[in-house]
Amino acid sequence: MAENQPKRTLFFHGERMTWISPVSLDELLDLKAAHPKAPLVVGNTGVGPEMKFRGVFHPVVIAPARIPDLNVVKYTEDGLTLGAACSLSVAKDVLTNAISEFPEEKTKVFCAVLKQLRTLGGEQIRNVASLGGNIISRKSTSDLNPVLAASNCVLSLASRGKKRRIPLSDIFAGVGNNTITPEEILVSVHIPHSRKGEYVCAFRQAPRRENALSITNAGMRVLFEEGTDIIKDLSIFYGGAASTTVCAKQTCSALTGRHWNEQTLDEACRLILKEIAVPGSASGEKVDYKKTLIISFFYRFFLEVLQSLKTTDPYHYPGIPVEYGSVLQDFKTKMPQKPDQSPQDPVGRPIMHQSGIKHATGEAVYIDDLPSVDGELFLAVVTSSRAHAKIVSIDTSEALKVPGVFDVISAHDVPATNEFYYSDDPEIVICVGQIVCAVVADSDVHAKQAAAKVKIEYEVLEPVILTIEEAIKHNSFFEPKRKLEQGNVDQAFETVDNIIEGEIHIGGQEHFYMETQSVLAVPKGEDKEMDVYVSTQHPAVIQEMVAASLGVPANRIMCHVKRVGGAFGGKLLKSGLLASVAAVAAKKTGRAVRFILSRGDDMLITGGRHPFIGKYKVGFMNDGRIRAVDVNYYINGGCTPDESVLVAAVSLLKMDNAYKIPNLRCWAYACKTNLPSNTAFRGFGFPQSALVTETWITEVADKTGLSPEKIREINMYKENEQTHFKQKLDPQNLIRCWNECMEKSAYYSRKKAANEFNKQNYWKKKGIAIVPLKFPFGLGTRYLSQASALVHIYTDGSVLLTHGGIEMGQGIHTKMIQVASRELNIPMSSIHFCETSTTTVPNACASAGSAGTDVNGMAVKDACQTLLKRLQPIINKNPKGTWNEWIKEAFEQSVSLSATGYFRGYNENMDWEKGEGQPFTYFLFGAACSEVEINCLTGDHKNLRTDIVMDIGCSINPAVDIGQIEGAFVQGIGLYTMEELKYSPEGVLYTRGPDQYKIPAVCDIPEQFSVSLLSSSQNPHAIYASKGIGEAGLFLGCSVFFALRDAVTSVRNERGLKTTFVLNSPLTAEQIRASCADDFTEMVTESWGGVCSSVSG
Ligand SMILES: Cc1cc2nc3c(=O)[nH]c(=O)nc-3n(C[C@H](O)[C@H](O)[C@H](O)COP(=O)(O)OP(=O)(O)OC[C@H]3O[C@@H](n4cnc5c(N)ncnc54)[C@H](O)[C@@H]3O)c2cc1C
């Protein structure tokens, strides 16, 4: 019935805006004439982010998606017409169809457009984003405009009483009447057939292959005089170079009439570089990289056309050298194709995460999913926009006028300890993003609108220290500095054959948990009690900090954590600070306060992994034996101590990775700067210091002429040894992992194959690397690893299990239920876990440092064993009875059916004065071999294959553990190859969302990815001989870093470039391109002489 109703214009009136959805073109044109400034919203992927993130406001919005003229798909004599409201997915499907139906000669434009559509955005974006929206928003990064313009596509525009058709190229090439007026709308786009002798290509390079805006893109078309290679018509358009799509018009006309040969290529590159100005951008990629891409794209077009000419006349056009052929293939993302233990005992089995289905369906409840509490308020924070300044005044008058605003909360409202302050003086701000005050209102929107209206006046203070280098210059460090030393370093340097010195810079990393920091504080109305629902790894510290800020005993604050949507170390102390803000607001207003950080604010305020500099001096023998190492690590701690000194210390303790270094001196410094305070992050300093180690290992290989894997083997721990802080170490499983990984990855034969590939391919190179791992497990001191559990058995036989660990996606509750199931000998389905809470398990230690399962597992086991001991007489009396019968009997005999369990923690210690101790309980081992392929022209790369072998003892749940290894590894790929934090010179973080900050996507997961667990490994120290696995795998992501280095090395060797070169982390496409130096890079940076002949073959 609903379908048969006549369609009519719909109006939706909101508080501030009106949304109109017309049904005919005439109506639309009338509306547009009446509201020329109103945007047409189809997919809302352009307008939406502008309104949300850039404060753009539209009182009227017109939604034209229901108008048939804008959804047309029409094949014509000379091409294809697509309505402007067609989604990009529809356009993709239509083009795919057309390509299969029309002769190849006619579909070259279709193919080029389709190529861009495959990687434009992601599937979700393409399903809603419209063709018209992409063209009309005319963003410089549009992937479609350059190729559509180069291909002579024509736009059909309409306004009231007027229709016209203009080639898209006219708009960007500045030809004729080329402006689209505000009253005009785009009705459709005509994409022409290609003609005989016409070739069309499109290119893009982005920080990540999918779901990332291009750094630079291009569309190019050439038409030859019939039967020749003489250029009749040439079009070249670029995106990403300037503020809009630009045309290399002069270059094209200068080259018309020329033959398609190396002289033309040479001339084209010179002319393009001259014509296409690439202005510097404060936040963007380097200008040189864009310029290199611009000519590299043209070169790729040149090769592609040369190769196509060969198919028309192989006698006259021999095509390109075979070794150049592979660069014409783009990287594609292939989706993967499709003992005597009791059968009931779930331990050691790949049990699915208990909430896995709920995570996938969206049923899992996170903080912001909690139902609203009567009268609840929403909180938005106001943060400092200066890195170091005195607050002169805060004017809240405008903010208080915003409708729905309830109050402004400031430092003066804190009843007791002020956990808000980052420094001793409340009037001084010490980083951009420091919380200055907060607004509470009746909705999230009102709170944010009001927060934006708070005016703060600052008096800027000196110095502003942002980088490690500046901190060193100003001697700005957190104390104490840590040092470890063994052997006689200075003497050893005098006896070695060779010494290298160098440094590597490792960028920071954003936690990028799926659930941003979230709190709901609910005052209970009596006795100063408050429920705090919070996304944290450490409820006890939240309780402590909230109680301290409110000035109440901890027994009035009840913290509840059902689950956390990812944490990675970022939800320890930071969550306490944010929970205190919400609690103070709740206390002041007497209302429940919901405080959910937006992604942008979360990234701005909460800090992340420490940026790192490692400076090294390494002495070694010609046979590859490393005899002496002297290293200094500097980490950028940001503006408060947080855990930076500890991170620096751990980076020292773990720096040896898998190697025995007889003479070693290392220092770690935590730099105090004016960045938001950096904090714990999966791996806790190890991923950085061990990367420094692997870097100098690789450099020793370069210098000695031995392979990196030989240097690794020569220097690896071999037998029972001592670490550099005198802890005993049995490296047997390290060597087993290494050997198994070598074998499983078929390392040597694949290395040979990669070398062979590299000989046959000039512009594409493969690289392969294998890296060992020793990851010490421990928290350095006993009390940090104590744990408790509470287990209740109800009279119906069901069991409620509680422990102090936090579920943050890692599957701890699943494993704890497995433990209880084994101990009580009942099915997992009889056991339930409800929430972690300070009311059931007090004083629980943080779920951190890979220790959650180890320590809580022991406590759960203890509680279950206590219960079983109590039940044993009843079971003995009736051995054939059922669980339910025993429980009923126990209740009737007044046997307590509730028990706590406790684990005292591991006996760990470290004496920093002496530089020795037993800070760890055991070691995890592993090895990873990764193979990559790089495109030397763009710096793009593809992760081809990774094989990991891990020693994690006897896994309690291999499915969950392998998931942890895979997830950590991919997060490591992000750290080492793509995730880049960018700051303004004033210390403002630019990269504040998925738009600017790229974490790995599906396309970055190695096409072949295998994780195997080392067999028959036992660990006497942990529950059921397992090992804590949360963090270790992250470091193995660096096997991709070194595989990329290997590929770059082979490029450089082939081109006779000097062997020593520095690669920093993350090793982005930009760095890879710059390291694959060639005539194009030289052309951009230096001279103009003798450019292309040598590269065109
Ligand atoms: C996460 C993400 C990733 C992205 N990745 C890429 C990428 O890799 N490459 C790329 O090129 N783009 C990318 N984009 C941009 C995206 O393709 C465009 O935002 C989208 O095509 C715009 O279409 P829309 O229907 O959503 O536009 P809307 O947001 O609905 O509208 C955008 C603008 O277009 C105007 N408009 C829309 N239709 C018409 C019409 N018929 N006539 C006149 N004006 C009209 C509107 O007035 C408005 O100003 C990405 C966007 C997002 C959010």
Please supply descriptive tags for the structure shown above:
Uridine Diphospho-n-acetylenolpyruvylglucosamine Reductase, domain 3; 2Fe-2S; AldOxase/xan_DH_MoCoBD1; alpha+beta; 1097 residues; metal-binding; Aldehyde Oxidoreductase, domain 4; Uridine Diphospho-n-acetylenolpyruvylglucosamine Reductase, domain 2; iron ion binding; binds flavin-adenine dinucleotide; 23% strand
3D architecture notes:
The chain is α+β, with helices and mostly antiparallel strands and 1097 residues long. It folds into 5 domains: 10-62, Uridine Diphospho-n-acetylenolpyruvylglucosamine Reductase, domain 2; 71-320, Uridine Diphospho-n-acetylenolpyruvylglucosamine Reductase, domain 3, CATH 3.30.465.10; 367-462 and 511-603, 2-Layer Sandwich (Aldehyde Oxidoreductase, domain 4), CATH 3.30.365; 612-779 and 913-1066, Aldehyde Oxidoreductase, domain 4 (2-Layer Sandwich), CATH 3.30.365.10; 782-907, Aldehyde oxidase/xanthine dehydrogenase, molybdopterin binding domain (Aldehyde Oxidoreductase, domain 4, 2-Layer Sandwich), CATH 3.30.365.10. It has 32 helices and 40 strands. An 8-stranded mixed beta sheet has the order 15-17-13-24-21-22-23-34, with helices on both faces. A 5-stranded antiparallel beta sheet has the order 4-5-8-6-7. It has a 5-stranded mixed beta sheet with strand order 19-27-26-25-20, sandwiched between helices. β21 and β22 form a beta hairpin. The longest helix has 26 residues, at 287-312. It starts with 9 loop residues before the first strand and ends with a helix. Residues 1087-1097 have low confidence and may be disordered.
